[in-house]
Amino acid sequence: MIAAILWLVSCTGRMTHDLSGVNGVEDLKGYSVAVAMGSSYDLMLSEIDGVDVIRLGVGELLVAVEKGRADFCIIDQFQARMLNLESRGLGIKFNNILKGTACAGFRKEDSLLCSRFNSYLRSIRTSGEYDRWLDEWKSASDSMADASFLVYRHEKQLGSRALHVGITITYPYLFLKENNLTGIEVDMFDRFCETAGYSVDYEIYDFSALIPALNSGKIDVILSHMRRTEERAKQVLFSDAYIEGGGAAVYRIGDGMSSTERAGIRERLRESFNNNLIVEQRWKLMADGLWVTVQISVLSIMAAVMAGVLLCRLRMSRRRMVSSPTGIVIDLLRGIPLLVLLMLMFYVIFASSRITGTWVTVMSFGLYYGAYFSEVFRTGMESVDSGQWEAGFALGLGKFQTFSKVVLPQAMNRIIPVLKGEVIALIKMTSVVGYVAVVDLTKASDIIRARTLDAFFPLILVSVVYIVLSWLTGLGLKALERQLTPKSRDL
Amino acid sequence: MIKVRHLKKVFRTPGGGELTVLRDINCDIEKGEVVSIIGPSGTGKSTLLRCLNRLEEPTSGVIEVDGTDILDSRTDINLIRRKMGMVFQNFNLFEHLTILDNLTLCPMTLLGKKREEAERRGMELLGMVGLHDKAGCLPGELSGGQKQRAAIARCLAMEPEIILFDEPTSALDPTMVSEVLSVIRHLANQGMTMCIVSHEMQFVRDVSTRILFLNEGVVYEEGTPEQIFENPQKPVTRAFINRIRTFESILENRHFDLYGLFGKIHTFCNKYGLGTKVSDMVEHITEEMLCGVMPFCGPVKMTIEYSEKTSGLSMTFRQENTLDSILDNTDEDSLSLMMIRGMSSSVTEPENGTVCVELGTVPFCTC
User: Fold this and answer.
1) How many domains does chain B have?
2) CB–CB of B110 and A406 under 8 A?
3) Cβ contact, residue pair A405, B105, below 8 Å
4) Domains of chain A, start order
5) Residues 6+ away with beta carbon under 8 Å from A166
């Protein structure tokens, strides 16, 4: 994903296609169109021959059009209306693409919950509450996109069933404002839960991961502006429709120079900074993400060290029955891409358990890097001359004493410099945990990008934070290394 | 103090075979003794030493230290090892610790000594081995001889009752051997019980109270230094003590390859630094003997023996399948025999069919 963005950002070549004749989906033939991966627009366009479909994350869609990588992008029309598109040199070409309704999704066997939700929808429709509430939202968002909405939150009801709700950040249906989750759908679902007596727990997923997460039992409800399609209905029990909508095709107007681009670089930077961090206190989301990244890194390193020590011990066992199977396990772990291992653990092995993504991450990283660490430990141990063991034994030291006082300090001198690289790799690799519903630093920037549709600033910021993290880790390990080196003399 | 009975050690070779290094070792080491173990390489001297503190696990047999069977699984071998210091060929100082810390680690860990106390004793011992000013150095900064002296001091810091020396000078530069030997000699004079595996024959002879000669997995010969060095009783001991080098060749019949044989003799003489003059003379005698004297009624076995210790050189020619005396059947005026007698100090026939030619000590002053 990051690579895709860099490719987008770096792309300066602008296409000059004549877009005037395009007034509907049928006219898109021969043009390149950016859509959110796995969305219903994606499915629709894939079936039309001659359309060059570019599948991206939600946050990258507008950037693709801005940079001239795509002629059009399709985003929600409600969202398109509320974004200040003109200021970015963009406009809406046509609306009402794939007009349809969004539904909540439930597990097939959870029909009771589904029918309770449906009856709630019916009741608010008949009482007129639904219309009042929708108008409130529409007027609020029409007037000022970033102003303070009426954020309706209810007290969590203790002791009631907790619903795990999987969402994808989609402005303005589900988004983070001042680090609180809000939006039209969230508002509605909160009201339902209050009436029906559930407590609720929102978890942020990639759109394409929602259905697997539902079916594996990670979540109970999909609330993500999802439309009912035949394909999806095979796997998901959809509720009645609760909101109507359609897509808007966004294109670049004229020379495509946005107002921010016309402004000076300082002005642009200030605006970016303001938009991505200050407005709606988005920096809080970043800070939370950073904290999660740090937590996951620290726990994963500890788990990896423990797993590494254990694997190393087994690998170095004199018994072949122990050492060779361990060698195979290590090779297997090192042979699987980390992301695949992570997804396997989350969606297959721990599918039915309620264990959170954070702990699955720590376990997966622990195993994966444990395999790497164990080999580092082993070479470190083997680099210590066997005479050191013998000298310890001959003086009367026991096995453990010889290990801890003689061999380990010497092995550490050789292990730490190698381990430093692995640890930094681990920290950087934590950026993939967004795939298992953990909002870390990278995912936080994704969420902000999905809201502001600005690629440059959040990514640069995140890169800087990772660089600083790696640098600090390197410093820490260097200090440890110095501590262990026999009397670093001042020569 | 140490009693070894029927000790056997079999190594498994990587190919799945077995290699018996120690077959049946019986020996005793008493308090105050300095026992040296010598013998040809590969006879298990180091293995025997390493079995004594169970760095090698014996295959079978009994080892008792002060009446305790150390091969018993209930024996705490670590307690036994505290009493038995060991000095290694490669020093094995703890590379990450300073010399002083090398000396204090075990007394502090195992004997519960306070740091000040351990360091005071450590400095005393370093002073004794002449390394007082190296206390703060890391092992990597010392020369081989200094390292080995530090390793000996490390042993002493545990106040052992016996020290095992495993070829303490084999890994050292010749210039550094004497400083280590002096320290060991000093310990011997103080009455320390020691068991030494060494190739330094002169040193072993000076310092030992008793010598075990190991050969083919058994204690082949045992005695005081005088007995072993002056008057060894068994042939292998004698050959070893006198450092006898041998050359052997069997010649099937009269039509053997004389010049091929000369080539081999030349190589042998070169290897032990005997020079062209000596090798010419040996070749000469060989030619006269084989072409003029030996009757060749069967294969002839020829042996050259050179003692590196005494520099004595002798040749033996044995005529197989004969009961007759060779010299008696040779004409006393035979030119060959006369030439051989001229070049050697004596020609004898100790038993029928075997002619011994003594060439004397190298370099020959007769020529």
Assistant:
1) 2
2) no
3) yes
4) 2-99+250-263 (3.40.190), 102-243 (3.40.190.10), 283-484 (1.10.3720.10)
5) A203, A205, A210, A213, A214, A218, A219, A221, A222, A223, A224, A437
* CB within 8 Å: B92 and A390: yes
Chain B residues near residue A393 by CB distance under 8 angstroms: 55, 81
Q: A143-171 pLDDT, tens per residue?
A: 444 433 333 343 444 446 788 899 888 77
Helix axes A282-315, A456-484, angle to 10 degrees: 40
Residue A6 has pLDDT above 60, yes or no: no
Whether residues B209 and B250 fall in one domain: no
Distance from CA of B90 to the nearest CA of A (A): 8
Question: What average pLDDT is seen over chain A?
Answer: 82
Q: SS3 string of A283-334?
A: HHHHHHHHHHHHHHHHHHHHHHHHHHHHHHHHHCCCCHHHHHHHHHHHHHHH
Query: Taking a C-beta distance cutoff of 8 angstroms, is the pair A200, A257 a contact?
Result: no
For chain B, say whether A406 makes contact (Cβ under 8 Å): yes
Q: Which of B81, B96, B154 sits opposite A410 (nearest CB)?
A: B96
Which CATH number fits the domain that encloses residue B294? Answer: 3.30.565.10
Distance from CA of B79 to the nearest CA of A (A): 6
Same domain, B23 and B7: yes
Per-residue confidence in pLDDT tens, chain B, 367 aa: 899 999 999 998 887 788 899 999 999 999 999 999 999 888 889 999 999 999 999 999 999 998 889 988 888 999 999 999 999 999 999 999 999 999 999 999 999 999 999 999 999 999 999 999 999 999 999 999 999 999 999 999 999 999 999 999 988 888 889 999 999 999 999 999 999 999 888 899 999 999 999 998 899 999 999 999 988 889 889 888 888 888 999 998 888 999 999 999 999 999 888 888 899 999 999 999 988 888 888 889 999 999 888 888 999 999 888 888 888 888 777 888 888 988 888 898 888 888 999 888 877 644 4
Contact residues on chain B for A394, CB-CB shorter than 8 A = 53, 55, 81, 84-86, 88
Round to whole Å and give the CA distance between A176 and A439.
12
Interface touch A410/B81, C-beta < 8 Å: no
Q: Mutation test of the interface with chain B: which of A389, A390, A395, choosing the one with the most B Cβ atoms within 10 A?
A: A395
Closest by Cβ to A394, choosing from B55, B95, B105: B55
Q: With beta carbons less than 8 A apart as the criterion, state whether A483 and A305 touch.
A: no
List the structure tokens of A491. Answer: 């020569």
User: DSSP secondary structure string, A236-298?
Assistant: -EEEEEEEEEEEEEEEE-TT---HHHHS-HHHHHHHHHIIIIIGGGHHHHHHHHHHHHHHHHH
Q: How far is A477 from chain B (nearest CA, A)?
A: 19
Provide the domain limits for residue B326: 244-361
Contact call for A387 and B86, based on CB within 8 A: no
DSSP bridge pairs for B20: B10
Contact A395 B138 (CB under 8 A): no
Q: What is the rounded distance in angstroms from the CA atom of residue A145 to the CA atom of residue B241? A: 103
Q: What DSSP assignment string belongs to A121-156? A: HHHHHHHTHHHHHHHHHHHHHHH-TTSPP-----PP
pLDDT in tens, A445-476: 888 887 777 777 888 899 999 999 999 999 99
Q: Which residues pair with B193 in a beta bridge?
A: B162
Looking at B240, B273, B302, which one is the last position of a domain? B240
* Nearest Cα residue in chain B from A413: B96
Most A-contacting residue of B86, B92, B104 (CB-CB within 10 A), to test interface: B92
Mutation choice for A interface testing from B56, B87, B95 by most A CBs within 10 A? B95
Q: Is A257 on the interface with B (CB under 8 A)?
A: no
Across the range A413-425, mean pLDDT stands at 91
